[in-house]
What we know:
Distance between the termini: 61 Å
Radius of gyration: 26 Å
Strand content: 25-35%
Number of domains: 2
Number of helices: 12
CATH topology of the largest domain: Purple Acid Phosphatase, chain A, domain 2
Structural class: alpha/beta
Amino acid sequence: MRRFWHIMATFAALALLLCSAAGAEDVRGYDKSQGGYEYVLLGEYPYEEDGATAPVVWRVLSVQEGRALLLSEMILDTKQVTFVEDEKDRTNHNYPDLTDFRDSDLSKWLNGEMLDTLLGGDPLLGAVIETEQGRLWLLSYEQMSDTKMGFDKSVWNHNMRSRRAVATPYAKAGGILVDRSLGTSPWWSGTLRNKTGKKGWIAGVDGHISVGFFGRTNVGVRPALTIDLTLCKLLSGAGTQDDPFVLGAKTAASRPAFALLASAGASDVALRPSSGGDAETEVVLSFVGDLSIGDATQSRQTANSLTNVINQNGYAYPFSLVDQYFHADDYTFGNLEVNFTTQERLKSKNKYNMIGQPDFVNVLIEGGFDVVNTVNNHCMDFTEAGYQDTLKTLDDAGFNHFGTIYPGMPRESDILGVADVKGIRIGMVGFSYPDEKRDLKKYVARIEKLKNEMGCDLVVCSMHWGREEHMTSMNTQYSFAKKLVDAGADIIWGHHPHVLQPVMFYQGKPLMFSTGNFIFGTMGNVDPSTGIFQLVYHVEDGKPVLTQMRVVPCQTGKKGDYRPYELTDPAERTACWKKMISKKKISKLDNLPASFAETGIVNIAADGTLLDAE
């Protein structure tokens, strides 16, 4: 009890101060020469036996590229690995034979109930990074024996204090095992072997676990997480265990005032909030089509190639005519149709192999993009090695990406995207050349995982599909899109044809079959019409409700310049918007209203009905 009130008093006192001597970027990982660990306060969790809460102290294990790996200093709770309730099953040790800890009930509970209790409603939740193990996980067998993070390299001695911790009174009340002589409890690793010998289950700190432990209720939970320090500010504290750093969320950069820009020759479509819009309850998502930030191998050395244009003019140049929209929205999506690699010799048999310098990832960052889909017909132009180079380049830059390729096959890469935007969690899944008969079940499984396991409020399905240079969709795409929405998808975002195709709605959900090219150095005589597709959601009772779609009409830049630009001539703007209104009538699908050709805006009623813009 004394420790609880000491922490609370410390937290209250420190919250009144500002630390001017250091910033969050100065937080360091374990360093024996500097006294070992630093500590931070993050979130609150039940502490006392009766459930009274307290701020949680975290040990900083390591810091790499602005990302800090944290481990809770105390064991916070107790839980069983697999929630088996049947007494007969428990007696017979009849537990699910899973091979991945992420499929366990404990993992789901960590990233559901525990995460919500710990950081629900806290702005710092947005700085906690989604990893392959989730946002909260248990340290791996390898991590808990990593001397660089302050652990003993021997994993067999369960008395090693580096791998034992004091449990909170709340955790003790849950029945956790406490060594009476040491006063501490063992905690647990997320990787070893289950009863079939397959890697991926859970083990005690001494490296041993029996099958019966799978259903034990007194497994100590000492969670780990990774936090992006660049999204945090240091409020106070000295970083010691008794005086931990107090972190706060950085205030979002103030957005430019919404203004009527038509008189300056630009559109106010994307910058104008819908009627009654509130910046605190409005979420604006932008989508564009194909981004080939580079060239084909046979053209990249020419004087006016996009590669040379970027090298001569800088990373901000390619999107400099439209980036104000991407900096003013809340999240921007693009389809990355190029490989960030130096492995030019590993080419495919494609006529064009799309390649960009790895440093061109900065074009995305400078341009205001937030996430890219990586799977398409060019992602393997430089074989799997080139694709992995692309992913590593994005990861090293801290840039969000997603995409599923070769699911269920040896070369599988299956990355689901997740982003938290103004308290709304957005999930993303992408396939290349998806086929309903072959891929529907795979898509649905990932939609359900994003919604049911990862807590996503919106799911974006990225579809690299259709026929190149065709202005209309194929009949099979209509059926596929409807079934994905029926399965829980909220947005169908298509690309690949390199030209715009009409937009339709199904049950109030947008089906953007093709968003066209946006920047593509090698494309020649294709229709240059394109656009910035923006979806406006209002948050009602914590849930996003789509109220408007608007499109900034644009054209792709000419060779030698390449920059997409907004159309300003009224006739050209109308011509572009007309291409998004379908002349076909597809069963159960709604076409954009005729008024869209004049405004570029469609409002969506609560029941999904499409309305003319006022």
